[in-house]
Design goal:
By secondary structure, the chain is mainly beta. Helices cover about 10% and strands about 35% of the residues. The strands form two sheets. Strands 3, 4, 5, 6, 9, 10 and 11 form a seven-stranded mixed beta sheet that branches. Strands 2-1-7-8-12 form a five-stranded antiparallel beta sheet, with no helix packed on it. The protein is globular, with a radius of gyration of 17 Å. The model has no long low-confidence stretch (mean pLDDT about 95).
Amino acid sequence: MRGRYVSPEQAAIERQWHIGRQNQPTLSEPFAARYNVAPQQGKPENYIPVVRQAADGTLELSRLQWWLLPFWSKEPRIKYSTFNARVETVAKAASFRDPLKRRRCIVPALGWYEWEELPSGNLPWYLHGANGELLAFAGLWDRWQGKEEVVESCSIIVGPANSAFSKIHDRMPFVLPPDRAERWLNRKLTDAGKAMELLLPNPEDAVAFHRIGTRVSNARNQGADLIEAV
């Protein structure tokens, strides 16, 4: 996953996960869908929606920086890339091992983009739920606190692509079905090994995909036309 996806509107997330406005402590104005989301550091206007479990066990909707900033970082920015966490190393990597045990989330998505590398150039593809449903990416979050600033941030866990898509690209995010998403969000689960057992390969028929135009390659381009098949 190269770091581009389509984020749903707030109302769709509320309906899917039955989240009331009282469970959105950091949100004010409702947000719209975004069709070309890229990872950013230090730009709250570009934060992405995530669903996580609050201390009382209810689900809450928040917007976090999509570039995980570990709680132990000395600065409010980190030099290396943390917007994706590789499943092969997530349990041992310093940035992710604690969130894997205690701070898991899901990132709601309409779909995501991948680029097929060919001698003639990179061709973009759009991947989405086979039945048009919202997807739940397995994610991690963390909270960094400085003297005058607090940054909550997240990462999306990625692993090998399933056999249906592996000829086009070798990686994809983990899409959690409702039962595993519920267990993933459970704050009482603090065993990293048990959490890892929930990260199963995506079934071949769970995700559909089609070719799209190259306008998506520029993160400044937005709009529903980006996901139209060509």
